[in-house]
Design goal:
The complex is a heterodimer. Chain A is an alpha/beta fold. Chain A has one domain: Hypothetical Protein Ychn, Chain: A, CATH 3.40.1260. Chain A contains three helices and five strands. Chain A has a five-stranded parallel sheet with strand order 4-3-2-1-5. The longest helix of chain A is centred in the N-terminal third of the chain and has 14 residues. The termini of chain A are close together. By secondary structure, chain B is α/β, with parallel strands linked by helices. Chain B is about 35% helix and about 20% strand. In chain B, strands 4-3-2-1-5 form a five-stranded parallel sheet. Chain B starts with a strand and ends with a strand. The chains are: A alpha/beta, B alpha/beta. The interface between A and B is medium-sized, with 15 and 13 residues.
Chain lengths: ~110, ~100
């Protein structure tokens, strides 16, 4: 499982997480992706990063489906506490609550936290 | 499962998130600046006690010593050493929260 929990441009974590997703996808790994905490900001729609001089990598998340990665999840509370809903995102992860996140994590073999 | 936390609770949400998403049988291991969460007489003391209600909480002795707080650890926090750390990591699936 790859877990996104940092916002996209203040640090390199989210970008590195995305790179890892694409690498796992390219090698046909059975990978699940989870967005929690500030990680939900990584897939906010409508980003325009031109003026801050950093590449907007959010559209790349849409390529995830092309790699047959379909197990995408997002934490409900992280989303709602930040005033967001799935309609504000560039992809459509399944919205799950904290107890479902807990159960999902128990099912995983390894964690890559970004 | 074992959840590793290496940031101070005053600086990072790592410990809060770990405790929120960790299953009740999961342990939480504090190391590096994470050990500040285990210090008594702090604003975080009540919260770490609350977390200990649901999880075994470990703190790395070497990091407590390095920070001069080994004699001020909240009762119930299990102090462990590097070899114990290695054993726990071998015995559990691990998630790191920074």
């Amino acid at each position: 499982m790859i877990v996104f929990r940092k916002a996209p441009y203040g640090s390199i974590y989210a970008f590195e997480g995305l790179e890892n997703v694409l690498i796992m996808g390219a090698y046909d790994q059975d990978v699940s992706i989870l967005f929690i905490d500030d990680g939900v900001y990584s897939i906010k729609d409508g980003m325009d990063t031109e003026a801050i001089g950093i590449k907007n990598f959010s559209p790349t998340f849409r390529a995830i489906e092309a790699y047959d990665i379909e197990k995408l999840y997002i934490d409900k509370e992280s989303l709602e506490s930040r005033g967001l809903s799935v309609d504000d995102l560039v992809i459509e992860p399944k919205v799950i609550d904290a107890s479902e996140v807990e159960a999902l994590m128990e099912e995983q073999k390894n964690f890559f936290m970004f | 499962m074992l959840h590793l936390v290496n940031k101070s609770p005053y600086d990072s949400t790592g410990l809060e998130s770990a405790s929120k998403y960790a299953g009740k049988s999961s342990g939480i291991l504090l190391f590096e600046d994470g050990v500040y969460a285990a210090m008594s007489g702090t604003a975080y003391e009540d919260r770490i006690k609350e977390i200990m209600g649901d999880h075994d909480v470990y703190a790395l002795k070497e990091d407590l010593d390095a920070r001069g707080i080994a004699d001020r650890v909240v009762d119930g926090v299990k102090q462990i050493t590097y070899p114990d750390f290695v054993d726990l990591v071998e015995q559990n699936k691990v998630a790191s929260w920074s």
